[in-house]
Amino acid sequence: MSSEADKDYGLLSQPSGIEETHDPKLQRRLPIGAAFGWLRAAWGDLVASPGPSLAYGIVVFLISALSVWTMITLRWDYLLLPALAGFMIIGPLLAIGLYEVSRAREEGRKLTLAETMGVRPYSLAQVFFAGLLLCLLLLLWMRAAVLIYALFFGFRNFLGLEHLLPLLVGTPLGWGMIVTGSVVGALFAAFAFATSVFSIPMLVKERTDVLTAVGTSVAMVWNNLPVMIAWGAIALVLFIFSVLTAFLGLIIVFPLLGYGTWHAYRSIR
């Protein structure tokens, strides 16, 4: 009989070990200040491995800038605001190579950029499945954003950002849309955060299935809710800073959040 380490997990080919979420290790209660410790550790990783860190940040910056330019050029600007919010949904998936940089540094190794590009997660098929689920969640959020717009402004053509922004901040109807969109977006973001913040690092490091990883991630977040809210707030502030700097801030912020997420996972798991 093969050992657990030898199992080859396909897409849901093994029954979910959701009972792992009752592991006593997951019952830890970390203080809120631990979130700032993760950020300090992330900065240490960035300073120790500037090449891979900045390379990932630059790539994400270019993808973000190109996506915004494409939406504006094709007059898809009605998707711009939900797309910006949706970036945080798929962020953990883009940081897989950064998780490996942090992991290697814990073991006293230093990875090159080429080595991070060749990282093979222990549960590779499950990572693809998790990515598919996150992409579906992103599409669902963008569809919800379009429906919210239709709820307040009807099925007329999109007014364009230059005309919509004054309506949003200058009319009661606009503020109603802002509040509704913020509440719905927060629910999507909270769900995505709870299910992916630890499941992606777990699939990278451990041989398991996506349902177990998602269940474990939710349990880890729930059992450490105050510190995870603090970490989510830090991520949100840094992301807003990146948007205000025309995404240039992502060059530093993205690797910081990637490394920080890994250290959060290692502190709790």
Q: Can I get a quick summary?
A:
The chain has 269 residues and is mostly helical.
How would you explain this protein's 3D organization?
- With 269 residues, the protein is an all-alpha fold.
- It has one domain.
- Helix 6 packs antiparallel against helix 9 and helix 9 crosses helix 10.
- The radius of gyration is 20 Å and the shape is globular.
- It starts with 33 loop residues before the first helix and ends with a helix.
- The N terminus is likely disordered.
List the main descriptive attributes of the protein structure presented here:
269 residues; mainly alpha; 12 helices; 0% strand; disordered N terminus
Order of helices and strands: HHHHHHHHHHHH
Counting DSSP H or I runs of 4 or more residues, the number of helices is 12
CA-based gyration radius: 20 Å
Spans of at least 5 consecutive residues with low confidence? 1-21
What's the end-to-end separation, in Å? 28 Å
Mean pLDDT: 82
Report the structural category.
mainly alpha
In percent, how much strand structure appears in the residues? Answer: under 5%
Tell me, briefly, the overall form: globular
Number of strands: 0
Helix content: over 70%
Describe the main β-sheet briefly. Answer: none
- Domain count: the total is 1
